[in-house]
Design a protein that fits this description.
By secondary structure, the protein is of the alpha/beta class. The chain is built from 15 helices and 14 strands. The chain has a 9-stranded mixed beta sheet with strand order 1-2-3-5-4-6-7-13-14, with helices on both faces. The two termini are about 45 Å apart.
Length: about 425
């Protein structure tokens, strides 16, 4: 097993680019060079600036940047505070000071797929207007000591169970992308083990409930490689610079490279355009390019066992889709969900979790009447657009809030589940 060289290589490249940009600026300061415009030096300096910022993004967790909130013409401070703290992730609350608690209590389940929970910053901002927002804040595995033990898909699911129990049965859960299958499993686990702790509603956004329902490059890769190949290619040990020294991880930089390779031409053009803009003096610190890539390129490592068990159990064996998922030997039956309203959201142009993968959850909820199921397919939206951007703000968010409101009244006593054949949603 190799010791992690990913971050060492990144630091070398970053230092090289710093030198490149600084050298260009130093040369341009000499009178002989500064007398006339020098496009080559300007381009060199721009290249160094853009690439140095690119690599700087990859080593630190972004700030939430949510400090104030305006409501009824008044400005309120937003305090971000942990309410449950665990070794591999916290439950945090965006508490708006001086504001009465809103009727909707929302738990956002953020992906743990290479990016920090701050990837959902704009989602949080849009929900905090009308909701009391909580979110799962997963930790970078490189900073978690080996003494804290393992963390796989079962441990992740039990974390969600604990978070839901802490927030109580008046909670509305929204799971974005990767955690959708495990959030569905956590809800089913509560339905059987502690039904009084179940959330009111569950909204699943662009998640691989049944990866085989609509194959993509992601699912094809998952089936094409063996688990041995994945462990050899993707898993490294954390180096001595970090608290998690010796822990096996899937480095976030490798995950990022996989995502970017799917749209290499688009990302390559974006960076070349930005270099040209910097060289011409047309770029700014918070322009559209920097706002997007400041978040997109900030990556974190995940534990090797979480990554490998996700590929093996969610994608290869499709345990959630087959309703065969187990936690510590206990089979989780999704059909046990009988009084949690479930909604799925998909993007018509999603090339990561293609349409059909997420809506498959409704067929698994055999204990729910059709009146407690809903689905939405957003035309023209890609994967990112279904939880951020205009598609989310203008179309999807209002539908999700309407769904929450429609199922926020007094909880009716759960009825016995009907036969599975009577509850299958025709897709």
């Amino acid at each position: 097993m190799r010791y992690m060289a990913t971050y060492d290589l990144m630091e070398t490249v970053r230092n090289t680019n710093q030198w490149l940009g600084a050298s260009a600026l130093a040369m341009a300061s000499y009178p002989v060079f500064s007398m006339v415009p020098n496009p080559a030096l300007q381009w060199m300096a721009a290249w160094g600036e853009v690439t140095e910022r690119t690599f700087a993004r990859m080593v630190a967790k972004p700030d939430w940047g949510i400090r104030t909130f305006t409501d009824d013409g008044k400005d309120h401070l937003v305090k971000i505070e942990p309410v449950v703290q665990k070794p591999f992730g916290d439950l945090i609350h965006f508490r708006v000071s001086g504001r009465h608690t809103r009727p909707r209590k929302v738990l956002l389940v953020a992906p743990m797929s290479g990016h920090y929970a701050t990837l959902l910053r704009s989602t949080v901002k849009s929900l905090i207007v009308d909701c009391e927002v909580y979110i799962t804040d997963w930790h970078n595995a490189r900073d978690i000591p080996v003494s804290e033990g393992k963390f796989d898909v079962e441990d992740y699911t039990l974390y969600l169970v604990d978070f839901m129990k802490h927030l109580g049965p008046d909670t509305h859960v929204i799971a974005v992308c990767q955690p959708a299958p495990l959030t569905l499993a956590a809800t089913a686990y509560l339905a059987e083990m502690e039904p009084e702790a179940q959330p009111r509603t569950l909204t699943l956004i662009g998640g691989p409930i049944d990866p085989n329902a609509a194959p993509t490059e992601v699912t094809d890769f998952g089936h094409r490689v063996t688990m041995g190949q994945l462990e050899e290619m993707m898993i490294q040990r954390v180096g001595y610079k970090y608290k998690g020294v010796g822990r096996k991880v899937y480095p976030g930089l490798l995950q990022l490279s996989s995502f970017m390779s799917m749209n290499a031409d688009r990302h390559g053009k974006a960076f070349m355009d930005q270099i040209q803009a910097v060289a011409k003096g047309e770029a700014s610190d918070h322009d559209a390019h920097n706002r997007f890539y400041d978040e997109y390129l900030a990556v974190m490592d995940m534990t090797a066992e979480f990554y490998l068990s996700t590929v093996d159990r969610v994608f290869k064996k499709a345990e959630i889709a087959a309703n065969t998922f187990t936690i510590k030997g206990h089979k989780v039956d999704i059909g046990k969900i009988t009084n949690v309203a479930v909604k799925t959201v998909e993007g018509a142009n999603d090339d990561i979790s293609a349409p059909g993968q997420c809506v498959a959850a409704l067929n698994l909820c055999t204990g729910l009447p059709d009146s407690m199921k809903a689905s939405h397919l957003e035309p023209g939206a890609g994967h990112y657009g279904i939880f951020a951007g205009k598609s989310w703000r203008n179309n999807i968010r209002p539908l999700v809030l309407d769904f929450i409101d429609a199922h926020s009244g007094p909880r009716t006593k759960a009825k016995p589940a009907k036969a599975a054949a009577d509850n299958v949603v025709k897709l």
